[in-house]
Amino acid sequence: MLKIAFHPSYIHPLPAKHRFPMEKYELLPQQLLYEGTCEPDNFFEPEILNDKYILAVHDAEYYYDFLNLKLTQKEIRRTGFPLSRSLVERERLIAGGTVQAALYALEHGAAMNIAGGTHHAYTDRGEGFCMLNDQAIAAQYLLDKGLAKKILIVDLDVHQGNGTAEIFQNNPAVFTFSMHGEKNYPFRKEKSDLDIGLPNGTNDEAYLAKLKEILPNLLEKVKPDFVFYLSGVDVLATDKLGKLSLSIDGCKERDRFVLQNVRDKNLPIQISMGGGYSEEIKHIVEAHANTYRLTQYLYM
């Protein structure tokens, strides 16, 4: 059974000006239940993760300053969110949801987190609406528990996974692959194990050709025993913060290709949603819902 992490705290701690497009976290489960893609049993409420697993990735000074609401104003501005107790709980729940989803993926083949994809969080700081790096925490958890030996992180959000690249820059057990807009945030890129920077306006044909050229060979080369996938839909032409030009159908084909290639190799995969900032919420929800529909179809 496909398991999906969702918690009401994914949206409610956020101030009103940040609710759009974050309301997708509420609308996605509603849409998936309404159309019959998922049943209530597909969803689980994550638990707050033990600090020791977060500290395996994040510096203690940064984490405890965040936990105790002691970040400086400069550090808070860098994250983009006002700091609050409920925000801290939200971030810990998201990280816990991705860890639990990774464990479900080991059992069922695939599992998802309605939130997550917080790839701009560094070892020692937060950036770009990301405070704790959920997939990095989950990847390190699997390695430390002996549940995986070689991990591939496939980051197809429109923004480079700079925090993830920094966290694992000296860890040969994790291969970081980021395909993103070359001239988009972050403007100072980190070095992933493989970075593909795409020019502004990249369309379906060019995007998919590049992905199909790279991913099968990468799976053969890296030989992972677990895959994390960040399936941001800010690659859409309608996205306010992206500079690429994919259609909803192109984004769907991107997901299908990733999921099918991982499925063909019988590899477990955990999927976090990442970004999506189109003007109309229906475009965000539809593009994200396609990821769930495809995963449910391939892993049912």
UniProtKB/TrEMBL annotation:
InterPro entries (UniProt xref) = HDAC_classIV, HDACs, His_deacetylse_dom, His_deacetylse_dom_sf, Ureohydrolase_dom_sf
List keywords of the entry alphabetically: Hydrolase
Q: Where is the Histone deacetylase domain?
A: 19-289
What is an example of a Pfam family matching this protein?
A: Hist_deacetyl
Give a GO biological-process term: epigenetic regulation of gene expression
- Listed GO MF terms: histone deacetylase activity; hydrolase activity
What protein family is recorded?
Belongs to the histone deacetylase family.
Q: What name is this protein filed under? A: Acetoin utilization deacetylase AcuC-like enzyme
Q: Which organism is it from?
A: Mesonia algae
